[in-house]
Amino acid sequence: MKRLKNRYLFRMYEYIQPFINYSIPKEEAVYGKKVLVIAPHQDDEAVGCAGTLIKHSKTDGCVEIAFCTHDTLERMKEAEQAAKIIGSKRNHFMQFAAHSLSGNKDFEDALTLLINKVNPDVIFIPFFFDKHNDHMAISQVLVDIKKKIDLKFMVYCYAVWSPLNPNCLFDISDVWELKKQTIECYRTQIISRDYVKIARGLNQYWGELKEHNMQYAETFFMMTIREYISLWNKVFK
After folding, report:
1. Reduced to 3 states, what is the DSSP secondary structure of residue 154?
2. Does the residue 207 lie in any domain?
3. Which pLDDT tens digit goes with each residue over 109-161?
C-alpha cells in the first residue's frame, strides 16, 4: 500500500512541474471577487489561508466559508469567531462527522448544492496530497461533481498537514496579527497543538525565501478547476 501511494506521489511531482516556477510569483489580489473556502474541519481555514482571506475581505472581496465536519458546539462557536475576523459574509456548517467525507454521497450532494448556490469565482481547498483523509476527499468530490455540472472557478490549494509545492504567494505581513487572532479563536484545538507556532514558522519561511524584508507569506498551488481535475486524473489514472 505504501509503495502504491509513493507511485502516486512521484507521478504528482512529474505532472506539477509545468506549473512551478523557481521564483514564486507574488500575487497582489485573488482572482475574482466571490470566494468559497472549503474547510474540511473547523480551523483548517485559519491555519491554511486566513491571511489571504483577510486581505481579500479588506479589499471589498466576498468570502464565504463551508465547514464540512462538525465536532462540538464550542468548536462551532470558535469557528464563528474566527470567521468574523476573516470577514466571512456567510458560514455554511455542513455537520458531517470527521473522517466521513471520503466516498460520502450525501456530502457530495450537499457540496454540489452549495457550489451551485454560491457560484464562486474562486475556491480554496486543501491540496489533494494534504495528509488527512477528509482533506484528500475534497478533491475527489470535486472530480465527481465536475462529471455532473459545469465548474468554472479558479482553485487555490492550501496546506495544513503536508508541505506544498506552491506556484503563487501572498504577502500577509500586514495582517499576520489578525491571522494569529483567527487561529487563537480555536482554544479547544491549540491546547494540544501550537497551530500559531506552526503557521508562524511556515509563513515566515516563505516570506523570507521570497524577499528579505517580507515577514510573512502564504503560498498556494493555483490553477483552473479544469486543470486541477486534469492533474488529478493524470496522477491517479
Report:
1. strand
2. no
3. 999 999 999 999 999 999 988 878 899 899 999 999 998 899 999 999 999 98
Cα 73 to Cα 82: distance, rounded to the nearest angstrom: 14
Three-state DSSP at 8 gives helix
3-state secondary structure of 220: strand
Do the domain assignments include residue 9?
A: yes
CB 120 within 8 A of CB 36: yes
Report how far apart, in Å, the C-alpha atoms of 59 and of each of 10, 62, 94 are.
Answer: 39, 9, 28
Domain-embedded: residue 127 = yes
What predicted TM-score, i.e. pTM, was given to this entire model? Answer: 0.92
Pick from 72, 34, 74, 9: nearest CA to 154: 34
User: Per-residue pLDDT tens for 39-90?
Assistant: 999 999 999 999 999 999 999 999 999 999 999 999 999 999 999 999 999 9
Give CA–CA dist 135/104, Å, rounded.
13
The one-letter code for the residue type at 206 is W
Residue from 39, 12, 58, 22 nearest 169 by CA: 22
Q: Reduced to 3 states, what is the DSSP secondary structure of residue 62? A: strand
Q: Is 214 within a domain?
A: no
Residue 122: CATH number of its domain: 3.40.50.10320
